[in-house]
Amino acid sequence: MLYATAGGSIAEKSVNQGPAPASRGPALLVVADLSRVWAEADLVASDAPLVRTGMTVDIQAPALPGRSFQGRLAALALS
To answer: How far is CA 65 from CA 14, 38, 43, 59, 60, in A?
Structure first.
């Protein structure tokens, strides 16, 4: 049994369950810290005056139906 020294989500697994003991060598798991992530959104031009850095946003992703994530708008890129 292995215990993680930090929390996170498994991003990559390069080992399978079996009798071979773990030894020094390539990483067994890659753990991603998902406590802080970036999201990008496209807005229509008419919404631009309503959006400012620092405002609170709620984000929903089609891959996670029924879940909502709250964050803060860090930057705007106008084109």
So the answer is: 29, 19, 21, 11, 8
